[in-house]
Design brief:
single chain; mainly beta; Jelly Rolls; six-stranded antiparallel beta sheet; three-stranded antiparallel beta sheet; about 10% helix
């Protein structure tokens, strides 16, 4: 019988944790004190897997495309299996254009206005004017659209959590 276990958690030849014992794990049970497999399972369930992610620098030249059903231009800056938790796209709406009503299933979206002036509509809320520096948080399943009410392009970042997948996009009429 033992009451501690020397464990090293390695990732890419770097030690993330060492000398972890049951005493370090709040809520440990007696079973974990006497069964190594149970202890290791508990350890694996409690280690921060964010620490296991490798730093990734994405060097690409993203291309802008016209998202016809939406009515705006999109440049995907980051949307890949490398980061399932977040996608980042730059959206561009030309003057006088209103994007199509749509919603995202299982996805929270944020508009970070970079330049221009717009009017955003989310759910049944009163339409709001948005300007450079404004952030709009759109919960999942909320209908949304934005209108460029200025004379220059309205440009904003669309940040989606989890990352945008087309299967979650639903155009509304």
């Amino acid at each position: 019988m033992f009451n501690a276990l020397r464990v090293s958690v390695l990732h890419n030849h770097h030690t993330l944790a060492t000398d972890l014992s049951v005493a370090c794990l709040p809520g440990s049970t007696r079973k974990e004190l006497i069964e190594p497999e149970s202890f290791v399972q508990t350890l694996l369930s409690r280690v921060s897997f964010a620490a296991l992610l490798q730093a990734t620098v994405m060097i690409e030249t993203p291309q802008e495309y016209f998202f016809e059903s939406e009515g705006c231009y999109i440049t995907e800056l980051s949307n890949s299996d490398v980061d399932l938790d977040l996608s980042i796209a730059k959206a561009r709406v030309t003057p006088g254009v209103t994007t199509a009503w749509h919603r995202l299933n299982n996805t929270t979206e944020r508009y970070c206005i970079l330049s221009g002036v717009g009017r955003v509509e989310v759910g049944d809320d009163v339409p709001r004017e948005v300007n450079t520096g404004d952030v709009v948080i759109i919960p999942p399943m909320q209908r949304q659209r934005i209108t460029n009410i200025g004379t220059e392009d309205l440009i904003f970042l669309a940040l989606c959590t989890p990352r945008f997948v087309f299967e979650n996009y639903q155009q509304l009429t």
